[in-house]
Hints:
By secondary structure, the protein is mostly helical. It has 12 helices and 2 strands.
Amino acid sequence: MRWITARRRHPAAGYAVVLLMLVAIGMGYAAVTGTSSPASASAPAGTSQRQIADGQSLFNKNCSSCHGLEAQGVSNIAPGLIGVGAAAVDFQVSTGRMPAKGPAAENGRKPVSLNAAQTHAIAAYIASLAGGPAIPAPAQVSTSGASVAVGQQLFIANCAQCHNFVGAGGALTNGKYAPALTQATPTQIYEAMLTGPEAMPVFNDTAITPQNKRDIIAYVTQTRSSTNPGGFSLGRIGPVTEGLVAFLGLLFFMVLAAMWITAKHGKTEAHE
Length: 272
C-alpha cells in the first residue's frame, strides 16, 4: 500500500491515469463498433486475390476514365468509389447504369455491358479498397415468409412519393427521376435500399430492418402480377393520368355533341 501511495503522488501519475483511461475507452469503442457490421468492413465472402486482380483490370479498362485510376473520383465528372461497397457496384453495373457513356444528371437502366462474373470481380476490387455494404446473399432477399401487407405500408410511407404507389416511377427535380421498379430484381431492390443510388436516400438496416426490406420486395414483386379490376391500367401511373384521360374523353364527347347539334340545326334551317 505504501508503494502505491508513493507512486500515486508522483507528478506523472495523473498523466498515466488519463492515458490508461483513453486506452480503455478506445478498446471498448472498438469492441462495440468493430463487430456491428462485419460484412460491410471487408471484401465479400469467398473473394480471392485473383478475383480482386481481375476486378482491378476491368475497372481500369471500363471505369477509371471517369472514377480515377485509384477510384478516387474525378471532379465534376464522377464521384469516388472508395467505401461505397460491393453492393453499390453490383447495382449500378447489373442494371446497365454503369459503365456510363458520359456524365448525366441521372443514369437510367440500360442493357448490361458486363456479365455477372465481371460485375462481381469489379465489386470485389472496390470492396477491397475500404469495405462497404456487401452484395446481399440469396437468403437475404428471399420473400419467403415476408408480409406483402407490411411491405405495402412501408413502401407507401418511404417510397411511393418518388416511385409511385405501384413502382411505376416518376419525375423529380433538376432533371432527375425515380425509375420504374418493374424490371428490378429482388437483389437490385435490396441493394438500392442499402446504398441509395442517384437521388435515392440510404435506408440502412437501422432505418428499415432486413425483414422489412424483404416485405417491401414482396410487395413490389406482387404488384407486377396483380390484376386491374377497374379496366385499363393506363400504365398504373396514378390518379393524375386517370383524371386527364377522363377529362380529354369528356371534352371529346362534348365536341362531337356540339358538332352533331350544329349539323342538325343547319339541316333544319335549310329545309325551312
